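Think of the structure tokens as a kind of shorthand, similar to the way a musician reads notation: each symbol stands for something richer, in this case the local conformation of the backbone. In the example below we present two proteins back to back. Begin with the first one, reading the sequence and then the tokens, and try to describe in your own words what changes along the chain.
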Amino acid sequence: MFVVNVEGAIHRNDKWLLIRRSEKEEHAGGSLSLVGGKCEVEGDSTDILERTLKREVFEEVGSEVANLKYVNSSSFVTGSGINVIDIVFLCHHKSGEPYVKSTEEVDEVVWMTASEILSQKDMPIYLKENIKLAEKILQNN
């Protein structure tokens, strides 16, 4: 059984929106990441990934996103042994200046260029890879 997680590679003015995950978070607390969260059980539904991402972005940073495009999917196991499927979407920032709305989940909001992200030595490799893939999609549109 997997937890399904979605993340948004949110792009605006040649920068990517990252959050510093709250130290309270069980997985990757204190690290920089894309905005996102877990899908909830809904029974029969449509567009659950897209709706979940839009909800999570609004709950965590108070912004709306649009034009979601699939970037990547992967799986990992948390430190406590939970299996997670992670799906990343490229998103364009639609409205609402991002801020730390959910202090339980977010400690900081940061805009960074792709080169700034890729040059950071302590940045998680999966984040760098997702930004590279999202950049390719942007360049091809």
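Once you have a description of the first chain, move to the second and do the same.
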Amino acid sequence: MDFGNRLGDIEITDPQAMRALAHPVRLAILDRLQRHGPATATQLAPDVGATPSVTSWHLRHLAGFGLVRDAEAGADRRQRRWEAAARGFRFEAPEDEEGRSAARALSREMFVRYGDLPIRWAAEVEPNLDPLWQGAAGLANTRVVVSAQELAAIQDGIEQVLAPYVTREPSERPAGSRGVRLMRYVLPEQDEQQAGGTL
């Protein structure tokens, strides 16, 4: 796995690793570990919808691809604690058919897992936010017409802005900080000219 990006994400290039992560329990495990830090299979089980033994099996499977690893032992050294190998992950569809199929499977599972997150946020979290945080939150639905190279440059620019906030140490966060989910969907549309439409 490669960590050579400015956000410190794992870059998944192996189709087998993509398929391993394209599972609801495994994706839930990784999400929970990234958000809340190290945990045992028993601690994770209620949040990921599996028994502790099934959760442990999925953890070992993820570890085989370098997505999770052993954490420092807790107070009870008999319990194996796990942590995410990085803050986040990213993947691109490889050029071969197996890789593209694996990337599609992982993308679909991520859409299923996170698709209703904005609706849940609007119903459960937003009504209880103070006005300052309500004002800072928001949605945007911007359509641009760009080349693939320009789209890559836009993505790079967004990461340049985010990197200092993503990678800073907890001690460097200002008072009153809280977790914020920034969701980015970058969805190239069908080529309208090939489809018989106009831009």
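Compare your description with these statements about the second chain. The chain has a mean pLDDT of 90.
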